[in-house]
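Working notes for the structural subgroup meeting. M.R. asked for a predicted model of this chain before we commit to crystallization trials. I am recording the input and output together here so anyone reviewing the notebook later can reproduce the run.

Input as submitted:
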Amino acid sequence: MSKVPNRRRTAAGLTAAVAVAGAAVLTAAPAARATVVDVNYACETKIGPKGAVSPVDIKAVKSGSGYTITMSFEKGVSDSPIELPKGVMTPRAELVLGGAAEGTVKVKGTPNTVAIPPDTPIAIGTLTGTFTPKTNGKVTFTAGTLTVHALGMDAAVCTPKNNPKPSLELEVTGLSGGDDTPPPAADDGGDDNGSGSELPKTGPLDSALALGTLGGTVLLTGAAGVLWLTRRTAR
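Returned structure, recorded in token form:
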């Protein structure tokens, strides 16, 4: 007789373990997948064509109703024949959207914090921008045109020539009107045909209200009768 409860406890324990494992798998499902992609840039500069391959990493972090997008370069893609003083170079780029979105996202870096020696690859660093999705679904981000603005001009305009793959796949969910929006709740006051017309209410609450009204009427009538009798007696 004592073995049955033990078996029940064992079964319950296994069921709980399976449930916890399943919840862990669902929680661990990634909302974004980033891959470092080698981008072969061909650059048009003021001193002639340049080119270099740089690994590019793109990431997204949820921020309010949108996402903060960062684009990082591991190597420079061009150089300058002269020294670039501190604060005169600012990079910017476009990310090409695909999947559930189209168009581009603009990202921009900060001015160089140290001087860049001549004939040295220009460090691009990290560029930042904002992406606000309009629909639910998987959105891809691919490296596009990179522009190096220095000394008051666009010193280098670089375009990928190796047709790079997306560096980021972002799963957008939870937007109103998107594919994962739950259907509207049924109108309790509507008829079976869905016309939405409100039927007369005859539930218990309405009955109680009706009885309360009737009781109030009877009470007022009784008070009037008492007042009338009192006046008759006074006379």
